[in-house]
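G., the chain you wanted modeled:
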Amino acid sequence: MATARQFLGATPRRWLEYLIAILLGNAIYYLSLVPHLPEALRHKGFAIDWGAGVDFLVCVAVYGLIRLGTRIQRH
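Predicted structure as tokens:
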């Protein structure tokens, strides 16, 4: 029995966590990191490059912190 309605296998709360992680991760990457990164690690729009990988890792790290925070909050 599902306790929350799911969309594509995730609850609305989880989708909100994804959205926040992406928006906050991109803000951190573009506003804080890009000015200090070497050219090779800067993302160029609509390209798969090392910058996209760094941006992805920042978003994943933010998502991990969100999940950790919700887990700590529950206990």
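The mean pLDDT is 91.

Shout if anything looks off.
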